[in-house]
Amino acid sequence: MPELPEVEVTRRGIAPHVEGRRLEGARVREPRLRWPVPEDLDAILRGRRVAAVERRAKYLLLRLESSGTLLLHLGMSGSLRVVPAETPPTAHDHVDLLLEGGMVLRLRDPRRFGAVLWTPEPPERHPRLAGLGPEPLSPELTGDYLYRRSRGRRLAVKNFLMDAQVVVGVGNIYASEALYRAGIHPGREAGRVGRDRYVLLAAAVAAVLEEAIAAGGTTLRDFTSGEGAPGYFRQELAVYGREGEACPVCGRGIRKVVIGQRSSFFCPGCQR
DNA sequence: ACTGGATCCTGACTGC
DNA sequence: TGCAGTCAGGATCCAG
């Protein structure tokens, strides 16, 4: 489900309910996520206070006071909601974090590609976070950076853009959208895109992600913020999911191709 | 070192 | 209505 904007919208939705609050424990109904949920999660969390809810790439970081961080990943189908503790869980509500005051932070994830990980170390040292590329909304993402990193690379520029070692947070929807805005064909070899076009691409990535966050994310099926509101960016998507529709700029039909086993949408007139 | 493909899992949708 | 096949917002792992 979520790319960076949806994770960030979720973070902003849950943070006011979670930050500064003490955890009374955890209830794990289904530990078989991408990696097993820690068996002693309840004991680890009980009585500890959440200092901050942060985000790195598509991971949410619940930083506990003193030390230790809970890493949450939503995978393809995960979502987080803050609900009253007495709310009956539905089929795929795998983990509850019990908050003082009678609410729970509830993780739902039908496909179970998500993750709940614990680390007592500084989270940037965790194997899942070490080695990640820069945040796309930081000053580190520049055209020069993308240009340098792409030299000699023969994979499609869309796959290059979705490589978390290069830059984090750009998933299948926003990769198509950013490449459209930058006028770059998604299947072009990354190493054969020039510096000037990477400058356009870096700006396009940041712009599309910021606009999506401002719109509350993209709701395709059932994405909602931590408070249950859907995102309204879907109607702003220029190419994703719009095969056969007219390009808003040149009027030619939007095409769909499979690149790296993922559907990719582009305008054959505007993108080279 | 890079690259593409297979893989984890369930649900929604399509076509017959 | 039922059933088989296809596809889905992620990211890791593995073989070549």
From TrEMBL:
Pfam families: Fapy_DNA_glyco, H2TH, zf-FPG_IleRS. It comes from the Bacteria. Binds 1 zinc ion per subunit. Residues 238-272 form the FPG-type domain. Involved in base excision repair of DNA damaged by oxidation or by mutagenic agents. Acts as DNA glycosylase that recognizes and removes damaged bases. Has a preference for oxidized purines, such as 7,8-dihydro-8-oxoguanine (8-oxoG). Has AP (apurinic/apyrimidinic) lyase activity and introduces nicks in the DNA strand. Cleaves the DNA backbone by beta-delta elimination to generate a single-strand break at the site of the removed base with both 3'- and 5'-phosphates. Monomer. Belongs to the FPG family. This is Formamidopyrimidine-DNA glycosylase. It comes from Thiohalorhabdus denitrificans.
